[in-house]
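User: Hey, quick favor. My workstation is busy. Could you predict this chain's structure for me?
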Amino acid sequence: MKKVYFPNLNGIRFIAAFLVIIHHIEQFKNIYGLPGCWNNKTIQIIGGLGVTLFFVLSGFLITYMLFVEKEHVGTIDVKGFYVRRILRIWPLYFFIVILAFFLLPNFNQLDIPRWSIYLSNEFTTKLILFIAFLPNAAILLYPPVPFASQLWSIGVEEQFYVVWPVLIKLFKNPLILLFSIVVIYWLIKILIHNILQNNQAGSFNFSVQFIKAFMELTRINCMAIGGIGAYLLFEKKYKLLNFLYSTFFQISIYISLFVLIGLGLNIPYLNDEIYSVLFMILIINLSSNESTVISLNNKIFDYLGKISYGLYMYHPLAIVISILSFMTMAAGTAYYAYSNFLIYFLSIATTIFLSAFSYEFFEKFFIKKKISFSKIISGENAR
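Assistant: No problem, here it is.
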């Protein structure tokens, strides 16, 4: 078995999860009527950008691993790929589904204002959509399912995993495939935008609106851009890579991300694509550039990245528990003035505790099973 190892990727996973956690801490503070900065433009976009970073990273790593398998083995074992994805994703995914639909609703203390009252509406339909890995459709059609709304992105990744190994196996020129996906996806978005401008009402308009929203969630273009980064690295396109590796270019990328995110900018028509390209360049440098200007390769980030799947899956529950605990303990006391610090501390600490416990005593069992099905070993314990 061939081993593939990229440094810094666990650190990137942690940063992506952390951006989502910050976004949701502010969202839940707003839901519970606590002071915060939910309306800040940066807070508004960092949750989505954290997920975009996850998608680009998944596209990069999965595509690279498939390239290596194809070269090393001579083909891609699609069935083995599916088994590995199932063992890594499904156990925790379905555990959260069971918690959200059947166990946590029994605790009235955990009711989320404006969300929990709608759980019983269309209960069976929503449950079927989640079981069928279509939570991204459920979140568009119905109010959020408490403690499971974050699963929409896992559904997107599973939909990506269904088609990706088959496409990489069949296409002789993967670069054309990857660019075609990005361009066609963008053209469809423009077409839908024009259709909506010219049709203001009716069921047809609703259908197009749904397709538009579904595509905004199902960002296979972001994963394809990550795949382009994998292609450049795998095929050793050194002329372009050396340009991307240059210190000046690296600093320019970090400054661009800092400014764009700091200003909370959404770029019309090309938002996902531009951020994904910037993330892809960042990932290439952190994973393969010996002269990277930033390193995330340390024991703390490495472990937090390993448990990042749990960080993402458990954080809504951890945040709600932390907010409710704070409101109970601090009401009418001087501690209320420190609500931001205390809620962030409790939320992050609780999320890390739940995720570490889950990783060590639940997920690791399936990860070991997953490795036994691998022809290519990733030193990153990739999702």
